[in-house]
Amino acid sequence: MTATIHSINEDLEQQARVDLAATFRWTARLNMHESIANHFSFAVSEDGSQFLVNPCGRHFSNVKASELLLLDANDQDTMNRPGAPDPTAWAIHSAMHRNLPHAKCLMHVHSRYATWLACLQDGQNMLPIDQNTMRFYNRIAFDTHFDGMGLGDEAERLTTTLGDKKILLMGNHGVMVAGADIAQCFDDLYYFERACQTLFDVYASGKEPLVATPEVAEKTAQQWENYGFGFARKHLEELKEILDREEPDYRR
């Protein structure tokens, strides 16, 4: 099957390129990336099939807006062309964009604390011990059928496991965050890693954690969801302002 051309708003695509490039740069600053692995993508067509993703072998701290690949999730010849994406990026992200049009943005990392949680039997049961852990209360999908590096059937299965949730904790692997836009997706990725770090620190203390009631945990999660005033977008804009001063080439 070859690519089908869908209408793409060029101005929106360019804005998406800049925003996505900024999230790569900031993720590297947070040391949440791994070598030249891990991938972020964003669907730019209305049906979700055409998406931007980082080029193969490019370090997060070097990614520029113009370098992002524009791929079609239905194009089976993609890996046979020059400049093909990383095989695991193509397998996982194309499957998710093809099967989950509501998940416009996907961010996958092997960050230290999220991966630590992904290596526990009950990783999806994040204890509600602070505002950040409560943000994800009952909102984590957990895949427990790791069978290699995300190629073939592995990629298709992950789309079913994620369903309508925004966090997919990939057992023995890492984390995938899904969102309707780049800013919200990155904000969730950032706060999920912070939540995992807090949980890890509390476990490491050897002390008994102070766990909130289910009622308080759910109330806090809903408050996060209804926080309003464009919190995630403002977060990203502030990061871009710093990048504009210190490494503006991300926009190129």
What does this 3D model show about the protein?
- With 252 residues, the chain is α+β, with helices and mostly antiparallel strands.
- It has a single domain (10-251), classed as Class II aldolase/adducin N-terminal domain (L-fuculose-1-phosphate Aldolase, 3-Layer(aba) Sandwich).
- Helix content is 42%, strand content 13%.
- It is built from 8 helices and 7 strands, in the order αβββαβααβαββααα.
- A 7-stranded mixed beta sheet has the order 3-2-1-4-7-6-5, sandwiched between helices.
- β1 (39-43) and β2 (50-53) form a beta hairpin.
- α1 (10-29) crosses α8 (231-246), α3 packs across α6 and α6 (182-205) crosses α8 (231-246).
- The radius of gyration is 18 Å and the shape is globular.
- It starts with 9 loop residues before the first helix and ends in a 6-residue tail after the last helix.
- Residues 1-5 have low confidence and may be disordered.
Order of helices and strands: HEEEHEHHEHEEHHH
How many strands, which pairing sense, and closed or not: the largest β-sheet?
7 strands, mixed
Rg from C-alpha positions? Answer: 18 Å
Q: Identify the CATH class.
A: Alpha Beta
CATH names the topology as L-fuculose-1-phosphate Aldolase
Features:
seven-stranded mixed sheet; 8 helices; alpha+beta; disordered N terminus; about 250 residues; 7 strands; about 40% helix; single chain; L-fuculose-1-phosphate Aldolase
Layout: helices, strands, pairs:
Elements: H1 10-29, E1 39-43, E2 50-53, E3 69-72, H2 87-99, E4 105-109, H3 112-118, H4 131-135, E5 140-143, H5 153-162, E6 167-170, E7 174-179, H6 182-205, H7 214-225, H8 231-246
Helix pairs in contact: 1-6, 1-8, 2-5, 3-6, 6-8
